[in-house]
Write a structure and sequence with these properties.
Layout (H helix, E strand, L loop, with lengths): L26 H11 L6 E5 L5 H8 L4 E6 L2 H13 L7 E5 L2 H10 L4 E6 L8 H10 L3 E11 L12 E7 L2 E7 L1
Parallel strand pairs: 1-2, 1-4, 2-3, 4-5
Antiparallel strand pairs: 5-7, 6-7
């Protein structure tokens, strides 16, 4: 797997050996997402369900100020850390947290954090998209210029009225939603 664009473009990163439970976003889908997002200069990102860390690393490659990587899976956390180190990314630019999505969101609420870009790509069978997005919006975790990016295998019931612009892309069986606040 490789970083598709930005300052780390073409650099290789590892993908988790636990392919049953971890499904990295394909290069062409990441490329399309980041083409739609553009430069992320100075933005704070959250890669919830980080897997290999590819989405958050791609954000850092596009000049994001920082990214927090969250996953509950040991293999995912170790792969993310390995990838960040292999690219020599400054440790002040990221934080890696091994915990559940609910615990992470509660921590961010307690710390009164806000993110400019949030990547949501949980295991498809979890189906927690709507609940997680509701928690994010209800607790002001998304900044006033924030963007949420989802990747899933089915149509979502999203609160589109709470966003100024929404876009859905289809790549085979995969649906990507980008929601701009």
């Amino acid at each position: 797997m490789r970083i598709v664009s930005g300052k780390y473009r073409h650099r290789l990163i590892s993908w988790p050996e636990d392919n049953v439970n971890i499904r990295p976003t394909k290069d062409r889908i990441r490329e399309a997402i980041f083409n739609a997002l553009g430069d992320l200069e100075g933005m704070k990102c959250l890669d919830l369900y980080s897997g290999s860390g590819a989405m958050g690393i791609e954000a850092l490659s596009h000049n994001a100020k920082s990214c927090i990587f969250v996953d509950i899976n040991d293999v995912a956390i170790n792969t993310t850390k390995k990838n960040l180190k292999s690219l020599n990314i400054d440790e002040r630019e990221y934080r890696v947290i091994k915990t559940t999505d609910e615990n992470a969101l509660n921590l961010f609420i307690k710390e009164e954090m806000q993110f400019d870009v949030i990547f949501l790509d949980p295991p498809y069978k979890l189906g927690e998209y709507e609940k997680v997005i509701r928690t994010i919006l209800d607790n002001d975790l998304l900044s006033h210029i924030g963007i949420i990016v989802t990747e899933c295998d089915h149509k979502l019931n999203l609160p589109v009225s709470e966003f100024r612009k929404t876009k859905e892309y289809k790549y085979g069986e995969i649906l990507v939603n980008i929601l701009w606040r």
